[in-house]
Write a structure and sequence with these properties.
Elements: E1 6-10, H1 15-25, E2 32-36, E3 42-46, E4 54-58, H2 65-81, E5 86-91, H3 110-121, E6 125-129, E7 144-147, H4 150-157, E8 165-169, H5 175-185, E9 189-196, E10 202-208, E11 215-223, H6 227-238, E12 243-251, H7 255-262, E13 268-272, E14 284-287, H8 290-301
Parallel strand pairs: 1-4, 4-5, 5-6, 6-7, 8-9, 8-11, 11-12, 12-13, 13-14
Antiparallel strand pairs: 2-3, 9-10
Helix pairs in contact: 1-8
Length: about 325
C-alpha cells in the first residue's frame, strides 16, 4: 500500500504525539472536527475523504479514560461509516488493562470488555505498547501488534555502566518484564515482594537480589500514584543501593504521584510520552515514542513484519 493511501487521525488525548508520528511519516494529520455537545456528548466529523483508505486513529486512553475511550469508539465508527478500507486503533497506553482477570468475587474483566467495544465499533486491528499483561492480546478477536518500550529505552540505558547496575522488579507481577530488561542490558536481576494496603499505598516486604553498593534500575509498565516505586526505592536504599532510577513505560501520574516524586525517593524517573506528561521540573526524563509508532504504522500499512522493531540483542 502506498503512503498516499494512508490517513492518520488524532483524538484529543495526545494530538502532539499524532503530529510527531505524521512528521516521521512525512504526511499531515487528517482533518477531524472533535467537539462536545452542551450535555457532554462527543461529536466527531472526519473532514477528508477516507473511502478505501488505510486509517490509523491515535488515541491513548489516559485520564480522563472514559472520555478518551468513548471518543476513540466514536472515531472508529465514523471511519467505518465513511468506508475506510481498514481501521487500526493506535493505543500507546491501553487503559483498563489492570482489570484483566477476576481476582475477587463479582468483579468484571474490564480489559476484555474494552477489547469487545473496540472490535464492535469497527476496529480491524490494534497497535499498542507495553500492555499491562501480555495475555490482553488474546482478549481481541482481531490482530494486535504489541510493541515493547525497551526499544525506546535501550539507547538511553546503555550509557550507564552495566557492572554497577542491578535490575529490580518492584513487584512479583513484573518479574518477566524486568528479567527481559536485565537480559537485554546484561545486568543481574532481582525483585521486591510487596503487600498492597490500598489503591495508592504499598508496603515493601523484602528484596531478593544484591543491591548493596549498586545502581538500582526499577522496571515497571505503569505508575500512577508511584506507591509501588516509592516502596521499592526506599527498601533498596535501606539495603545499601547507591542510586535508584526507574524505567516506566507509562507515567499516568496523579497528584499523589507527583507529590511522592517531589520527595526525591528516585534519582530519576525515565518514561515515554505514550501519554501527555508534565515533568514539573522534577527528575523525569521523557523519551519519544513517535518514531517507533510511525515505523510500526508504516510496516502495518505495507503488510510488513513488525516483529523486528523490538528485537534488540535478541530481546
Amino acid at each position: 500500500m502506498q503512503i498516499g493511501e494512508m490517513k492518520v487521525l488524532s483524538g484529543t488525548a495526545h494530538p502532539r504525539l499524532t503530529k510527531e508520528i505524521c512528521e516521521n511519516l512525512g504526511i499531515p494529520p487528517a482533518q477531524v472536527t472533535l467537539r462536545r455537545f452542551p450535555d457532554g456528548e462527543h461529536f466527531v466529523k472526519i473532514n477528508e475523504n477516507i473511502r478505501g483508505k488505510d486509517v490509523f486513529i491515535v488515541q491513548p486512553t489516559c485520564p480522563p479514560a472514559n472520555d478518551h475511550l468513548m471518543e476513540l469508539l466514536i472515531m472508529i465508527d465514523a471511519a467505518k461509516r465513511a468506508s475506510a478500507e481498514r481501521i487500526t486503533a493506535v493505543i500507546p497506553f491501553f487503559g483498563y488493562a489492570r482489570q484483566d482477570r477476576k481476582d475477587q468475587p463479582r468483579v468484571p474483566i474490564t480489559a476484555k470488555l474494552v477489547a469487545n467495544l473496540l472490535t464492535t465499533a469497527g476496529a480491524n486491528r490494534v497497535l499498542a505498547m507495553d500492555l499491562h499483561a501480555s495475555q490482553i492480546q488474546g482478549f481481541f478477536d482481531i490482530p494486535v501488534d504489541h510493541l515493547y518500550g525497551s526499544t525506546v529505552f535501550y539507547d538511553y540505558l546503555a550509557r550507564f555502566p552495566v557492572q554497577e547496575m542491578v535490575v529490580i522488579s518492584p513487584d512479583v507481577g513484573g518479574i518477566k518484564m524486568s528479567a527481559a530488561y536485565a537480559d537485554m542490558l546484561g545486568a543481574p536481576f532481582g525483585f521486591v515482594a510487596k503487600r498492597r494496603t490500598d489503591d495508592s499505598n504499598v508496603e515493601a516486604m523484602n528484596i531478593v537480589g544484591d543491591v548493596d553498593g549498586k545502581d538500582v534500575l526499577l522496571v515497571d509498565d505503569l505508575t500512577e500514584s508511584a506507591g509501588t516505586l516509592e516502596a521499592a526505592a526506599r527498601l533498596s536504599r535501606e539495603k545499601g543501593a547507591r542510586h535508584v532510577r526507574a524505567v516506566v513505560s507509562h507515567a499516568v501520574l496523579s497528584e499523589t504521584g507527583y507529590e511522592r516524586l517531589a520527595s526525591g525517593f528516585l534519582d530519576e524517573l525515565i518514561t515515554t510520552d505514550s501519554t501527555p506528561i508534565d515533568t514539573r521540573n522534577l527528575a523525569i526524563t521523557v523519551l519519544r515514542v513517535a518514531p517507533l509508532l510511525a515505523e510500526a504504522i508504516l510496516r502495518i500499512s505495507n503488510h510488513q513484519s513488525v516483529t523486528s522493531l523490538f528485537k534488540i540483542k535478541g530481546f
